Amino acid sequence: MSGHVVQFFLDDSEWDEALGAIRSSLPTGGHLIFESRNPTADLFATWPKKSAPRQLLDARVGEIEWWYELAGTSEGRVRYEIHYRFIADDDELVSLCELRFRTQCEINLSLANAGFSISSTFGDWDSSAIDRTSPDMIFVAVAG
Q1: Which phi-psi region, left, alpha or beta, contains residue 107 (left: φ > 0; alpha: ψ -120 to 50)?
Q2: Would you say residue 38 lies in a domain?
Q3: pTM of the predicted model, to two decimals?
Q4: Of 99, 114, 133, which residue is a domain's last?
Q5: Does 49 reside within a domain?
Q6: Is 22 a member of any domain?
Q7: Residues 91, 65 within the same domain
Q8: pLDDT at 77
């Protein structure tokens, strides 16, 4: 799994079902490797804000500014808006999104319940240990 996809599973039942399907498709000893953002880190420190939006250039519509606005948090869930402002006509589109940031303990337990053992965990792709400020949690799990 890539791109922090685990965060898009909002309900535990969906996440558990996905892990079960992955486990059933792997042979014993097969590996599942994925990342999730670390909920103990400052998740939004690097997200662009309205006061400092990011910009991109689209070949069809021209310049676009975009930024995030936090809409709310509750029980590991984060709701936010992504704003896209099209410079040429000053139109703005807003996309409402929601993610679930599970703790390391929650992910460890869900992996064990699905029949995986954890081979390694890292706090970033440089293989550093997870601590409170690690941006990511990378899990290397083995099908039992």
Answers
A1: alpha
A2: yes
A3: 0.85
A4: 99
A5: no
A6: yes
A7: yes
A8: 94
**With contact defined as beta carbons under 8 Å apart, do 64 and 56 qualify?**
yes
Give the Cα separation of 134 and 27 in Å (integer). 31
Contacts of 46 (CB under 8 A, 6+ apart): none
Q: How would you classify residue 29: left for phi > 0, otherwise alpha for psi between -120 and 50, otherwise beta?
A: left
| Average pLDDT for 85-106 | 96
- Are residue 107 and residue 38 in the same domain, yes or no? yes
Q: How far apart are CA 124 and CA 111, in angstroms?
A: 19
Q: Residue 67 belongs to what domain range?
A: 54-99
Contact assessment for residue 16 and residue 114, using Cβ atoms and an 8 Å cutoff: yes
Within the chain, strands assigned E span 31-37, 54-58, 62-74, 77-86, 91-100, 116-122, 136-143
